[in-house]
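SAMPLE LOG
Freezer: B-3
Tube label: C17
Construct: single chain, 224 aa
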Amino acid sequence: MTKLYLLLVFALAFGCAPRTYISRAYDFNKLQRIGILAFSSPNNAFDGAENLFAENLLKYGYTVVERAKIEQVLGEQNLGADSYLSPDLTRKIGKVLGVDVLLLGSITSYLPEQKKLAYNINRVNTSEPVFRNEIVKTPEGETIIKPSYAGMQERRERSVYPYEYTIYAQVGVVAKMVDVNTAEIVWVGDDTTEGVSGLDAVSSIAKALIKSFDSRVRAARKKK
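STRUCTURE (predicted):
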C-alpha cells in the first residue's frame, strides 16, 4: 500500500510538462486586460474552472474582466458562452468591455477519482518435529512407552487482509487566447494531470499553463 502511494505521488510531482504555443507575430506589449469565458466541460463537475485561471492571471499582474460581464454581452447577442465567436462578436466584446484578448477553455477528458479494494496475502511456512510412541520392553522385562523421532511436519498458513486505495482523478484541459480585434489565436496551451479530485487537477493545470503563458509573454515583450 505504501509503495503504491509513493508511486502515485511520484507521478503527480514529475508528470509531463504542459504544452504551450504563442504567436510570434503578435505584439504582447498591448495585452493588458483579459476577458475569461466559462469553460466548457462534459458535466457540471467543473463549474467555475475558469476562475482558477483568473486567480493565476491576477497573480502575475494581469487585469481580468469577470465572466458575468462577458456573458451579459453574449446574452444580449442571444449567444451562449460556448457559441462560435465570430470576429465581429469578439470586436464587440472588446469594445464594450475594454479587453484585449479573450481566454476560452474546455475540459477535454475526465476520469474521476476511484476507490479500489485490494488484498494483502501473507504466507507463512513453518516446520516442527513429529514424534511417535513405541511400546518397548526394558532389559528388566518392563513394558514402557518410548517416544521416537519420526521426522518433520511442514505447515503452511495463509492470511488475507483487505485494504482500500484511491486512484486519483485525471483531467485534460485545452485553453486559448483570442485577440478581440482580429479573432486571431495568440496563445494556446494544453495539459493533462492528476489530482485528488477533478478540480484539484484543474487547479494544477491552471497554475502550470498560466506560468508558462506569462513566461512566454515576458520573453516576447523583450523582443519587441
